[in-house]
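step=encode ok
step=design start
structure_in=
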């Protein structure tokens, strides 16, 4: 599924994904990297 998703966006110069800490390793194994010195920012809340 990740291969298909990344293939869909391979012509984009950058793809951003926000992952929970416990899932970050999965995305790294899929070829994504962490942004050093970068943090996701949010406004508002999600129901949950």
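sequence_out=
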């Amino acid at each position: 599924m990740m291969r298909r998703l990344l293939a869909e966006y391979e012509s984009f110069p950058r793809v951003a994904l926000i992952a929970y800490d416990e899932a970050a390793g999965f995305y790294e194994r899929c070829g994504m990297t962490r942004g050093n010195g970068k943090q996701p920012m949010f406004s508002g809340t999600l129901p949950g």
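step=design ok
step=annotate ok -> The chain has one domain: 1-35.
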